[in-house]
Each structure stands twice: as structure tokens, then as C-alpha cells.
């Protein structure tokens, strides 16, 4: 048993995660700063210690066996818990978290997000024992998520604060939720797209005859959300709001977009708004955070919550899309 415990080290679990994410031993070795042969040797040692096969050797890619999939799932959970323990210890000792992970929905205005990041790093703290003031000791880690993926990161413990996401938060133990605001959505196409000259209001059947551009939900465990797609409609799936905007500017498809984002493109003649039979959509967004079982939240998280409590900050996150250029 002790050999197995020794084999299941954070380094081994991190190695498994890197191989699974990158899809090959060579790519994982580059990411970890090792040679592929060292990674292969480490995997064989882990397999010997556990007496299981973790990877299918008949495949050229690093394909996990069922046992490997289970180790990966549990390993990622253990790594998250180890990070959480270190974070709690640091928070108890100083009030500041070692790391603060933010899951940010792609619908948020990037310029407003990075204004907040800049303001956080501009904070100056004077050490208790004296000395020069310095920035907060908390490292920020930003995750870009879409729809259910934003909340999944919070629910699974992979994020400390989730901002945005059109998801009904319901009640989750250890989580707090507050409204972020609403954002209006409008149907837009490029001037050269066939729907630009179509009679209004556009019917669902008319829209369904043309390709729609959809952003992929980043959820892995929760049920992914798909909005605005008609049954049987051709879909171009893209990874981000910026990519969706680029696709629609090129006339590669149609779709619903946040009104603050498309407004300047409509004014410049790069996009055309079309009325539809479907009622105008307004998406209600939230932000949520993890609440410690004992004691207050860390000082880093509290700073972000204080900013989000301000109406001007929430409006900027939803409306200040003018800087989104490709």
C-alpha cells in the first residue's frame, strides 16, 4: 500500500493530466520540460506500482484505458484539493490567498476585465513588519469559459469566482450567488449575407435554412447549453465570442450577438440587424463564489467581490465591448 501511495504523487498526477490534455507523450514532455523517454519510464513505473495498464499501447496517440480514465478523474480532483488546502493555509496565515482562480464567461467585455486585473495589481500593501509596499501576494489565474462551463468550473472547485454565464444557479452548498445584470441580444448578419435582404420579421424557418454560428459550451460534466439553433440547421461551431463575431462579419453564418458588441459594427455598415418573429432576447447573468466553511473569504476574493458590488463595474463588464477587435 505504501508503494502505491508513494507512486500517486502530485508529480505523477500532473504528468497524467498533461498527457491526457496534450494527447501525446511528446507534447506532454515539452510542456513539463522533460524528454519523452523520461515520461514513458515514469508512466511504466506508475503502472507497475498500481498493477494496471493506464494507456492503450496499440494506439499511436496517448489513449487512456478505463483504469487510466478513472485515475485521471480522481487525480484531477486530488490536485484541486491539494491546491485548495495550500490556499486555505495561506489564507489563514496572512488573509491573502496563494492563488485566486477566476472563471470568466466569454460574453464579458475584455477591456473591463483587464481594467480590474490592472487595478488589483496596482494595490500596494505594507508588510506587517515594515518595509516597502508591494502588490498583493495572490496570483491570479484566469479561465475563459462559455455558458455552463463557467458555472461548472465553480461547482467543481476549479474556480474560486465565476463571472457571467446564462445559467440558473439554483442552490449549491458552499456557493454564494449574486446577479450581474442583463444583456440584450440581437440577430445580426453581414451586409452580403442572403438574410440581409430578406423580408422582416425573419421566421424561424427562414433562419433555419441558413448556417448559424454558435459558440461551443465549455462544460465537460454539466449538460452543454445550445441556444438559437433550429432543428436540422447547419451550424458553424466556434470557440469564442471574438471568433463568432469574425465569422459573422465574413458572412459565414448568422446568429444572435450581444447588442453592445455589434452596435459599432452596425454603425460602420459591417453588420445588419434583422427583426425576427422570435421575441427579443435578454440574457440574465450572475456571478458566484466559493464560501469557506469557516471564517471570511480571502482578501483577494473580497477585493473582487467589492468591485462586483458596484453597479458601474457590472455595467462595464456587460457593455464595454468597444475594444473587442480581431
Automatic annotation (TrEMBL):
Please indicate which superkingdom the organism of origin belongs to: Bacteria
Give residue ranges for domain HTH lysR-type. Answer: 8-65
This protein's UniProt keywords: DNA-binding, Transcription, Transcription regulation
Q: Which Gene Ontology molecular-function terms are recorded? A: DNA-binding transcription factor activity; transcription cis-regulatory region binding
In terms of InterPro entries, this protein maps to:
LysR_HTH_N (IPR000847), LysR_subst-bd (IPR005119), WH-like_DNA-bd_sf (IPR036388), WH_DNA-bd_sf (IPR036390)
Q: Which Pfam families match?
A: HTH_1, LysR_substrate
- Give the protein family: Belongs to the LysR transcriptional regulatory family.
Write the protein's name.
LysR family transcriptional regulator
Organism encoding this protein: Aquariibacter albus
Amino acid at each position: 500500500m505504501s508503494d502505491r501511495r508513494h507512486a500517486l504523487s502530485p508529480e505523477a498526477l500532473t504528468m497524467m493530466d498533461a498527457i491526457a490534455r496534450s494527447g501525446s507523450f511528446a507534447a506532454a514532455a515539452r510542456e513539463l520540460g522533460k524528454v519523452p523517454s523520461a515520461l514513458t519510464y515514469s508512466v511504466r513505473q506508475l503502472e507497475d506500482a498500481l498493477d494496471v495498464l493506464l494507456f492503450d499501447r496499440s494506439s499511436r496517440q496517448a489513449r487512456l484505458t478505463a483504469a487510466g480514465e478513472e485515475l485521471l478523474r480522481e487525480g484531477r480532483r486530488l490536485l484541486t484539493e491539494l491546491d485548495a488546502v495550500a490556499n486555505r493555509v495561506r489564507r489563514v496565515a496572512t488573509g491573502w490567498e496563494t492563488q485566486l482562480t477566476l472563471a470568466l464567461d466569454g460574453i464579458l467585455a475584455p477591456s473591463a476585465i483587464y481594467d480590474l486585473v490592472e487595478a488589483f495589481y496596482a494595490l500596494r500593501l505594507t508588510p506587517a513588519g515594515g518595509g516597502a509596499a508591494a502588490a498583493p501576494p495572490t496570483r491570479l489565474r484566469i479561465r475563459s469559459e462559455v455558458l455552463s462551463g463557467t458555472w461548472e468550473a465553480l461547482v467543481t472547485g476549479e474556480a474560486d469566482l465565476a463571472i457571467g454565464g446564462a445559467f440558473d444557479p439554483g442552490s449549491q452548498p458552499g456557493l454564494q450567488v449574486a446577479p450581474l445584470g442583463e444583456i440584450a441580444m440581437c440577430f445580426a448578419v453581414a451586409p452580403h449575407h442572403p438574410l440581409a435582404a430578406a423580408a422582416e420579421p425573419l421566421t424561424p424557418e427562414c433562419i433555419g435554412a441558413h448556417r448559424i454560428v454558435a459558440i461551443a459550451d465549455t462544460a465537460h460534466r454539466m449538460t452543454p447549453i445550445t441556444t438559437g439553433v433550429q432543428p436540422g440547421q447547419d451550424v458553424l461551431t466556434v470557440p469564442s465570442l471574438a471568433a463568432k463575431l469574425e465569422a459573422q462579419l465574413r458572412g459565414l453564418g448568422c446568429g444572435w450577438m450581444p447588442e453592445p458588441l455589434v452596435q459599432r459594427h452596425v454603425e460602420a455598415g459591417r453588420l445588419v440587424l434583422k427583426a425576427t418573429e422570435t421575441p427579443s432576447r435578454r440574457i440574465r447573468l450572475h456571478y458566484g463564489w466559493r464560501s469557506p466553511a469557516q471564517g471570511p473569504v480571502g482578501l483577494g476574493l473580497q477585493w473582487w467581490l467589492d468591485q462586483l458590488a458596484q453597479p458601474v463595474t457590472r455595467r462595464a463588464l456587460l457593455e464595454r465591448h468597444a475594444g473587442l477587435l480581431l
